[in-house]
Amino acid sequence: MDFIKLLDSLSNKDLLNKKGSRRESFGQFSKFGKNMALASIPFGLAATSSKAGAATKKMASAAFMADNNDVLNFALTLEYLERNFYQIALDTNGLIPAEDRVVFETIYRHEKSHVDFFSAALGPNAIDEPTFDFSGAQAGLDLPTFTDYPTFMALAQGFEDTGVRAFKGQAGALANDNELLTFALQVHSVEARHASQVRRMRGSKGWITQAENNLPAPFAPIYAGEANTVQGGVDLAGMFSDFGGNDAVTEAFDEPLTMDEVLTIGGIFIVPE
Amino acid sequence: MKNASKNESTTEGKTFKNRRQFLKLSGMAVLGSGLLIACSDDDDIINTPDPIFDLGAGNLGILNYAYALEQLEAAFYTKVLDGGYWAGAATNEKIIMEDLYNHEIIHREFFRTAITSVAPDQIVPDLEFDFSSVNFDSRESVLNISQILEDTGVKAYNGAGQLIDVSDDAGQAYLLLAGKIVSVEARHASAIRDLIDPGSMDFAGDDILINLGGTGLAYDKAATPTEVLTEVGATGFVVTPFTANNLPTS
Fold this sequence. Notes:
The complex is a heterodimer of chains A (about 270) and B (about 250).
Chain A: H1 3-12, H2 22-31, H3 40-51, H4 57-61, H5 68-91, H6 98-122, E1 131-132, H7 149-174, H8 178-201, E2 230-231, E3 234-235, H9 245-252, H10 259-266, E4 270-271
Antiparallel strand pairs in A: 1-4, 2-3
Chain B: H1 2-6, H2 12-23, H3 26-29, H4 34-40, E1 53-54, H5 58-81, H6 84-88, H7 91-118, H8 139-160, H9 169-196, E2 210-211, E3 217-219, H10 225-235, E4 242-243
Parallel strand pairs in B: 1-4
Antiparallel strand pairs in B: 2-3
Helix pairs in contact in B: 5-7, 5-8, 7-9, 8-9
């Protein structure tokens, strides 16, 4: 993939007919606090206002259509969150046992690269890094994220699994741009490698069985919908009793999350401006 | 190849054997019909050879491509679970390999069902594989091949995404399905890599990742079908010939 070409393709896109800047939209998003339903508004408006003319019925049938820059800023937000999370953890003496540091240093390095890439791809359209609070205070939680290693590990798993589902959910929105789509896929599968590793370090399988949430209860939305057994219009439930049954069916396919669903999860850790 | 085809005879058994030899060159066979056409110029070749299957064009071709790869993976893990390594493996490894077997069988059967429903006459046949080069009693041998297959699956799906025509609902569903499957392949690859070198960075190692835009080694590859099929062909695992002459390239 040619990075310069990507940048060109981005700069050539018509960003001028936007009603509001992305920065405003994300500001709005980050202010929603506990009223998470509001998170959908800026993206919903962006999708209908700038795309309405071109949107075909078929495109509208996709789970979500958003401007590519919205998608990239959405991705950047997630990568900011992950980078910041791992950076704090690695800087916190005594949190990560020596034998586990190489894993989290590796993940951190990848997330940092992803931030750099999305930032460069967006150029002046990149949103600023939000302020994060990993205690979850925005949602009324008081998590010992950086003083209790199991809590840190649980959140790491949650962020990685969310990242996988988030990128997957945007594939359709990026399908109008082969380079962006491919790039997103190349990030997406790295997040899945991370997720598998962290899950296994926590004693879980690397893959998601049914919609099992082995994190604190407020994070159940991270796994909502993972128990789906209908793929491509075919209900696979009951078809594989000799091959792990429905548990294996749900493990064999990861499910997407919509942008709204992801922002609801991410909003737990984002401090309103 | 000319010499090989001289051995061709009227008995089915020999024909099969000969065909098998020539498919040892499956890296070429799957990639183009040139070699096969050259061979079929021989007068004394198979009387009525089966036509070589082509994966096809458009989204159907991509589905068949994925189905062929899933057939390969499912066949491999079927052999793994019949082998000495799995029989004597530690419990956690047994579970992982069994899960991978289940998942790949499910992927394979899903594609079989999906393709049959839209193009029953154009689906890849059941492919034959030859894993005689793999020692299924050896942990190292099994895990190394597993790693290669899973990493290959990841870059194959990553590269196929942009080849899917999403101009209709079915195409959009196929793209999402590729996304649903590729992350599971990546989860597999990560687990296998960690079994090989536990606690290291290899679950997402620098050996498999690439650098985009100078931001560092932090991205999986996205390979074209030609690249993937060339590599798969070079393994010698694929016995049944097929070509991929009509897949979309953009």
